[in-house]
Automatic annotation (TrEMBL):
Key words of the record: Isomerase
The UniProt record lists the keyword Isomerase: yes
Entry keyword Isomerase: yes
Upper taxonomic lineage: Bacteria, Pseudomonadati, Bacteroidota, Cytophagia, Cytophagales
Record-given protein name: Sugar phosphate isomerase/epimerase family protein
Ranges for domain Xylose isomerase-like TIM barrel: 23-251
Pfam families, per database record: AP_endonuc_2
Molecular function terms from GO: isomerase activity
Length: 283
């Protein structure tokens, strides 16, 4: 069975000891790991939480984003340089946590648009830096998995076809694709076809309902999804990412204006869904 993770953004984007009781309960439910957002400036907290995860036997993955001032596809070289430096900082903090995978839409700045369709030069700019940080992340023992987002949050990579195009330009063994069923629910014609398209280049997978609530409570086609994952022999993480308004600043930044589900409902019932689907489809 693939390892199962839960993203603690359902409670908080901050890195602090307040997460410890949450991590304890995730471990008790049966989760193999927790996923953390890397953004909090308190560098010591990353090592502290990383040490705690090791103590209780939880593995770690991480996620992050870039601001418009750090956009890898900006025509301004100084902005791209800031993006390079920020990703290295994110990798360092992920290493402090003991992360195995760093996912997220850091191929470009989050919710930053040019009022035009993506240009080939933008893929080339992003790929150049992602190749560089692929080397940097290899030394830290972290797999990089840039993510395709929906059209309201990104324009460079909305689909696996676009993300695959970018990966072809990156051309680095330590840079693979991330798939999120919430975004794919909006952008892909068929989730199974998209999973099969990216195939062996898939490095990380987010289990996310269409409304970001409890997996299994909406209309994401889970049987189709898990059947395709089994078909491509996917061996990576299956990590639930659901959002709430528990952290208002984070919720406001991503347009979460209502409570979709309670975090522990997501965690308990989402875990059951993944185990059932995994057993059914042979993952």
């Amino acid at each position: 069975m693939n390892k199962i993770g839960f993203n603690v953004l359902a409670w908080s984007a901050n890195m602090s000891d307040d997460l410890k009781p949450i991590l304890d309960r995730l471990k008790k439910i049966g989760y193999d790991g927790a996923e953390f957002f890397v953004g909090s400036p308190d560098e010591a907290a990353y090592k502290s939480i990383g040490n705690y995860c090791r103590e209780i036997g939880l593995e770690v993955t991480t996620v992050s984003v870039l601001s418009p001032e750090e956009n890898l596809i900006s025509p301004d070289p100084s902005v791209r340089q800031k993006g390079l430096e920020k990703i290295k900082w994110i990798i360092d903090r992920s290493h402090d946590l003991g992360s195995q995978v760093l996912c997220g839409p850091y191929h470009s700045a989050f919710a930053t648009f040019s009022k035009a369709a993506p240009q080939e030069i933008e893929y080339e700019r992003s790929a150049e830096i992602l190749h560089q940080v692929g080397d940097y992340a290899t030394k830290a023992g972290i797999l990089l998995t840039p993510e395709a987002l929906n059209r309201f949050e990104c324009y460079l990579c909305n689909t696996m076809e676009q993300l695959g195009h970018l990966l072809g330009k990156v051309n680095h063994p330590n840079v693979k694709a991330m798939f999120d069923t919430h975004h794919a629910n909006m952008e892909e014609k068929k989730l199974g076809d998209a999973i099969r398209y990216i195939g062996s280049r898939l490095g990380h997978f987010h289990i996310s309902e269409n409304d970001r609530g409890t997996p299994g409570s909406g209309h994401v086609p889970w049987d189709e999804t898990f059947a395709a994952l089994a078909e491509i022999n996917y061996k990576g993480w299956l990590t639930i990412e659901g959002f709430t308004r528990n952290d208002p600043d984070f919720a406001n930044s991503i347009g979460v204006w209502r409570q979709f589900s309670e975090p522990w409902e997501m965690a308990e019932n989402g875990f059951k869904l993944i185990r059932e689907m995994g057993q059914k489809h042979g993952l």
